[in-house]
Each structure stands twice: as C-alpha cells, then as structure tokens.
Specification:
The complex is a heterodimer of chains A (471) and B (353).
Chain A lengths: L2 E4 L9 E7 L6 E2 L4 E6 L4 E5 L4 E6 L8 E2 L3 E6 L15 H4 L2 H4 L6 H4 L32 E5 H15 L3 E5 L15 H5 L4 E3 L4 H13 L3 E5 L10 H9 L1 H4 L8 E6 L15 H5 L5 E3 L4 H13 L3 E6 L1 H4 L2 E5 L12 E4 L4 E5 L3 H14 L4 E5 L2 E3 L3 H11 L2 E4 L8 H13 L8 E3 L10 H7 L3 H12 L2
Parallel strand pairs in A: 10-11, 10-12, 12-13, 13-15, 14-15, 18-19, 18-21, 21-22
Antiparallel strand pairs in A: 1-8, 2-4, 2-7, 3-6, 4-5, 6-8, 9-16, 14-20, 17-19
Helix pairs in contact in A: 4-10, 6-7, 12-16, 13-14
Chain B lengths: L15 H6 L3 E3 L10 H26 L14 H8 L7 E4 L4 H6 L4 H8 L23 E4 L5 H16 L5 E6 L6 H12 L4 E7 L2 E2 L2 E2 H4 L16 E5 L3 H16 L5 E6 L17 H11 L1 H11 L5 H24 L15
Parallel strand pairs in B: 1-8, 2-3, 2-4, 4-5, 5-9, 8-9
Antiparallel strand pairs in B: 6-7
Classes of the chains: A alpha/beta (471), B alpha/beta (353).
Amino acid sequence: MPTEVLMPALSPTMEKGNLAKWLKKEGDPVKSGDVIAEIETDKATMEVEAIDEGTLGRILVPEGTQDVAVNTPIAVILADGEDASAASAPNPKAAESAPPVAAAPVEPSPVAASAPATPAAVNSAVAAPPRPETVPEPDVPEGTEFVSQTMREALRDAMAEEMRRDGDVFVMGEEVAEYQGAYKITQGLLQEFGARRVIDTPITEHGFAGVGVGAAMAGLKPIVEFMTFNFAMQAIDQIINSAAKTLYMSGGQVHCSIVFRGPNGAAARVAAQHSQDYTSWYSHIPGLKVVAPYTAADAKGLLKSAIRDPNPIIFLENEILYGHSSPVPKLDDFTVPIGKAKIARAGKDVTLVAWSIGMNYALKAAEELAKLGIEAEVIDLRTIRPMDVETIVASVQKTGRCVTVEEGWHQSGVGSEIVAQLMEKAFDYLDAPVLRVTGKDVPMPYAANLEKLALPSVQDVVDAARAVTYR
Amino acid sequence: MVVAANKSAVGRASTPAKAATKSPARRSDKMAVPEFTKAEELDAYRRMLEIRRFEEKAGQLYGMGLIGGFCHLYIGQEAVVVGMQSALKEGDQVITGYRDHGHMLACGMDPKGVMAELTGRRGGYSKGKGGSMHMFSTEKGFFGGHGIVGAQVSLGTGLAFASHYRDNGGVCLTYFGDGAANQGQVYESFNMAELWKLPVVYIIENNKYAMGTAVNRASAQTDFSKRGSSFNIPGEQVDGMDVRAVRAAGERAVEFARGGKGPYILEMLTYRYRGHSMSDPAKYRSKEEVQKMRTEHDPIEQVRNRLLEKKWATEEELKAIDAELRDQMNAAADFASADPEPDPSELYTDILR
C-alpha cells in the first residue's frame, strides 16, 4: 500500500502552513526518520520526517506552495515493488474529515517537537473568526489606511513601538529572547533591542514576577511575559500582594508600572492544567487593570496603552486568536483607551456582552440570530477592570435583554458581575432575566468531543438569546 | 530561527567561571573584629539605642491599644541594620519583611512618621494605610515593609535589577529571616541574581526562631551562609550582635556587589528579645536563654562597655544621649497619638495612579 504523507499539524492552533522545501526528490529512497521536507508555520520552520521505508513516489504539493491546509496529502511513499501509478490522486476531503493529529503519518523531528511549546489541534468551533463590523475608533482619523495583521504581529509591534519610545520599557520571561517567544509574540525584539532589554528568564514564574515588580518599584516599566497564565498561578502572590497593593500600602509613594501578559484560557487539546481562564480571578482585585482584547487593532492599541499606564496591568491574550488577522489602522502611534467597551455590532433586540475569544461566539451567534429576525447588539468589553458598565447599561436600556458570553466558569465569573451590575443599574429596563453563557463547570477535558462540550458554543449563545427574547 | 546572542543576557559582562572557583562560604566571626573609632562607637551607640527606645515605646503604645494588628519588634537585633547601613551610599536601596521599624530608622526615616503609621494616623509614612508592616520612603531608599514571608527577596532582586539595568552603581540590601530563607522564591532569586550578576546583598537575619519554630526544627541546613553555595554565591556567617563585625562584613559584601561581581550572602547571627509579635507569649524558649543573650551579648551594652572602658564617654554623657532619645520617642508617641486618623476620603485614594 502506498502511504500518503499528510501536511502535519505542528502546533495547537495551526490550520495551514507553507511547504518551504523538499529535501528528497521523486524516486529517492527514504528511511524512517529521514527528513523529507521543511514546513513553515506562522511561528517556525519545522522538519518533516518519513515514518515509513520505501521510495518517495510522488510529490503532490510542490515546494513554495503557501497555505497548505493541515492533513492535505503532500507526498506518497511507495513500498518496495510498488509503482507510482499505484498512488491514488490526493483526496481533497482529507483535510476536513480526518482527525488532525491521529492521522498524520509524519512527526516533527525531535528538534522540531521541542520547538513550539504549543500542543496540537485546531478548535473548529472557533476556527474562522467573524470580523466585527469596523467601528471607527474615536482617535482614528477619517481616511486612515488599515492593514491586515495577525494579533501576534500586532502585539509584537506594540511592544517594539513602546520600547523604541521609552528606554525604561523592557520585556522578560521564558523564551522571549533567543527562542523568539514560545508563541512568537516577541519575534525580532532581541535583534532590535538586544539582550539587555529582551531577557530570557529561568523557569521561575514566582521569582521573575517578583523581580519584575521590584524593578517596577524602582521606576522601570517591565513587560513580564508568562508563557501562559496557567503558570502565573505560581506568581499570583507577587502580582496581587506586591504589584496591586503597594501603591495603597505606601500611601501613594511607590507605584508599579508593569504589564503581565500572555495567553489565557483554553488553547486546544491541552487539558485541565493548561486551559484555565483567569479573567475573573484578576478582575476581582482592586489595584489591577485587566484587559482582554479580541481584534488585532485592539490588541495593539491596548497593549501600547497598558505599557504606558502607571499601574499594574493584566493583559490577557488568547492563543487561538494569535494567528487570526484583522485590520489595524496604519498610524504612527495608535492607542486604545483602557476601560472603554466597543459596540462591535449594533442591534436593538438583545445585548450580547463578550470579550477576547468570547467575541467569536457572540459575533457568530449574532449572524445566526439575524437570520431569525433577532437583531443582536454585540458589546466587546475589551477591558474587564475597570469595567465600562455605562456602555452595557446604555445598550440594555435599549434592548431590555442581555446575554453574557465567556469561556470561564460561571460561579463568580465576569458574567456574574455583569448580571449584578444590571440588576443594580438597569433593573427597570430588563424584560427578561440576564443569562450567562459560560464554560461548563468542569476541569477542561482532553478528549476532543468532551473539550468541545466543556466550552460554550455558538448554539448556546443563540439559545440563550432566543430564550431572553422569548422567540 | 535561533539567534546567536550574548548568553549571559542582561547587559554587562558576566564572569561565571570565576565565581565557581571560590569557596562559597566563609566565617567572618573567625576574622579579627576591626575596632571602631570613638566617633564611630558613639554614633553606633546612638543609632542602636534610637531603635531600642523606639521599639520600647511602640510596645507601650501597643499595650495601650493605640497600635493595632501585628507589631513585630526588633529589640536585640539593632546591630544588624546599624552596621549594614554604614556600608551604604546615597542611592542604595533597602528592602525587608515585616520586622521593619529598625530598618526604617536606620535608613534615616523620621520616628514621628513611623510611629504615626503604627497608630494608623494621617501623618504616617503611608498615610495610615500601611501600618507596621508596610512603610516606604523612596527619598531614603527604603522600599518596605512586606508582609508575605520571602516576597521581599524577589522584590529586592528586582530593585537590584533596576540598578544593573541603569548601570547606576546602586546596591540593594535585601533583608530576610531564617524562616523566609526556606521559601522557594528565595532560591529562584538567588539563581537569577548570580546568573545576571545583580548588585544585591542578601542579609539573612537568623534570630533563631521562625515565629515559634527553632531553626533546627525547620531547616535541613542551618548554616544559612551556605544557602547560596549551589549558585556559587559567596556567604559569610557574621556575629550580628557586634556592630563592628556587621559593618566590616557589610563593607566587604557591598563592595563585592557594587563591583559587578554579583550577589553576596551575609548570615547575621542575632537574637530577638521579644516575641515574634506582640501577641506571642514565647513559650518555645526559656527565660534563661533570653536572659543569657541580654546579659552576655547585647549589642548596645557591648558598645557602651567599650565606650566606658576606653573612657571615650562617661556614664553621664551616655545617660544624656539616652535621655535625649527618650524625649524624641515621647515626642513621636505624642505626635502619633494626637495626629488625626486619615480622612475618610483616603479610603478610595492610591488604588490606581
């Protein structure tokens, strides 16, 4: 039987990659372990190894091909005595039908495997994000050119711009420098700013968070990257007890201008310890500001504002969103104010409040609801603390109904706070109870089907919106 | 993808091989204790007595209900901060845990402002919002005042990081106790400080008890000067009851750190006479043990005896200094009792900037 070599998924969020180079020609003998091709993901170049012995019968995807979907057959390996004609034509359905990891007949080489700290598979529920309707920012002048950027690029540009602007800004964390970032957010910063300002730390979250806070107390402006916020639990004492409280405890004498940033919440198929959403944890704490952007433009503008802010900022990114592109205004100094929500889609029948990846569900649900004749207004909260309650209340005064959407758990979640605020400030305007769409009340399971069940779905949001509109 | 870059990362050149070859721990108590001049003895006497009289007054105010919450007194350990402070320069930084009144006075902070913070009044260093464990003076280079055991070690390492980043020649004295020395983040900080050659001196004030737990009941390695040895950080055990030994060790350590050679550990063998906090009956040690330390090793008595022996001061002159300090502490107590509480509007200030 000829063996198909499929385009491998090399990171949890990889959906496609470029076939950079074939290292074997058609007709070459291959042994298990031979490197046969190089693939570029959005984060790194990885080697593809053969896992079967035989002859490279046919190359199905020529080198230089861009955006090859994961699981597309890229070559055929023939066993002894088999003929190239035995190789069937590539199956165009393979990409959609096969479960990505299990079926992949190639593995990244050991070197490659250690490369991205990002385990595998794609969360199909959130694969293609709907774009929010572009609502111009107040400070984006009419006629400004927009360029399409991934959130990854936008975050990197924000840091680079602020580091150029202010010599007190530096970035520290695990793998931020020579490795170029575990998720490649700090790509190129070491080359531009050098090892003094782009600092690889040992794997010691508690310690380096404290070092960062100490440096901030002395007046520097650290950007502390956590490889993920799951690991920041080791550092949460320094974040809360030292960073958030010192201004108060010192009677205003000592402040901490510091940004703690990194991916938060569920990536894909990384199970309970690597999938937690900490938004509500940090949003509980006076002395912190908590930011969770959805679009690339907001990521850039908010990160720049966060770096300039004299307070400790928790900047919650999302791994699934890193590779997603959206328009970013081409301006020399584009900032987005912290503490301001945005109407991402206007509507009159029900208010959907979301942020970060929750916006994915909310915007898709709004499209579905429109087909049912329900006009949903979608609010992108963007900042969780201080919360722009005014914008939510104003919308609910118009719609009379509200659904909150988040991947975090429901008890003491951010949605609970929104519900309470609406009870206190918009009770007389409500025509239905406010509903919360949240992650299920379980640790994140590994199995693909269970993981999907544990996360909220677009349908959950649609159902909740229909329930509160009685339709 | 991988970039060839300076592996030692942060800024200035490092010399990892050199540190590895030297003996990581020394005992300075075997070294000759350098003598003080008359002026130095008198200065040390005054500074240590200032702390003692302040702490005694604080203990009184606590008993009167004017000071609330936790109040950890420094009585017995005065030689440590007084000796160390004399090794510092303008622009250096000091950070410690919650037994911090002595450190603040040694840094030159005003006893009135410290006492008023203890009583929770608006004239306190933190406007009454920090209390005994949380006071700061950026003007005097004092960065707290931290209530989480061991947290100040990472923070102090970060202060040193900032001096290193700015290349301004500053050194940070990071104080912690024998109890904090068992916290994990201490070793995370040691590792980074040595890796990046940060100008920090770690001063472990070993007063023999972590709250009520004797050192040998909590620590596998009770020689704390060796706690940096696996990171190649040199360390010394110092007689922390002898201000001269402290200063000499402090000067060595500060010079080492300021010279770009990285961190240095000083274990100060010291003793607190009072309980862990005001509410500690101290049943874990005998009265005789405390009495023996007071009569044989008291840091202030040692200086006083030398001053009298050498006829550098008369009983009357020393009494006059004491009377002056008592007056000063009474004035601080009066201020701290009469000063109004913070305005209620202060509840909502200083949360964000």
